[in-house]
Design a protein that fits this description.
202 residues, mainly alpha, 9 helices, 75% helix, globular, GPI-anchored wall transfer protein 1
């Protein structure tokens, strides 16, 4: 289950890369439309589970949040971050997001997610809202891989060179982020519930 969720988000990013290559930068309205259908499924699931009193594990995504909401908000969020694509490959902000998120977890966000009472809409869905940052990072890693795979304008040597450069950047970021996580909080492991740095890297 844990592997399947992360793999699905990564695969969605790979497939979504086609729109970036064909239309340079999808507009926010188009991104909202693409996510709307998934959000409708999220609300439908919420209505059905609540109406039949279906037993849920609230600690997974929260009281109202579900995986469809995470998927539905990914396209518009990436579009809002699309201005970065002109200046750097997706892999750079992807690492920046997950490292910053892990740092926030170590500074008290993790304790809030695990122990804070559910007193309002935000805290009631704290797992789903916070883990979104980890899934956003995974989605952007998928976008980067998809751009390399589907970019037809590049010759084979140019594509290999670009993959090599991104591979170097990814390797350095991977080693650096792994060291950062080990240094900051070695006692905490992989968590799909929070979609933390170890989960994204694995």
């Amino acid at each position: 289950m844990d592997l399947g969720v992360g793999s699905f988000v990564f695969s969605s990013g790979v497939v979504a890369a086609r729109s970036y290559l064909n239309h340079r930068q999808p507009g926010l309205l188009k991104a909202l439309r693409s996510g709307l259908a998934i959000l409708v499924l999220g609300f439908a699931r919420l209505f059905l589970t609540k109406s039949v009193n279906y037993q849920e594990h609230v600690s997974e995504y929260g009281l109202h949040w579900n995986f469809f909401f995470t998927l539905g908000f990914l396209p518009p969020m990436v579009t809002l971050l699309g201005f970065l694509r002109k200046r750097m490959p997706f892999v750079v902000p992807a690492f920046a997001i997950i490292i910053g998120y892990q740092f926030a977890l170590n500074q008290g966000l993790q304790d809030w997610i695990l122990n804070a009472p559910r007193t309002d809409v935000i805290s009631a869905n704290k797992e789903g809202i916070c883990s979104f940052m980890g899934y956003l990072s995974i989605f952007m890693f998928g976008l980067q891989c998809g751009e390399i795979l589907f970019q037809k304008s590049l010759s084979e040597p140019a594509k290999q060179k670009k993959m090599l450069i991104i591979g170097y950047i990814s390797s350095l970021a991977f080693v650096g982020s792994s060291y950062l996580w080990t240094w900051l909080q070695p006692e905490f492991g992989i968590s799909r519930r929070m979609a933390n740095l170890p989960y994204v890297l694995c």
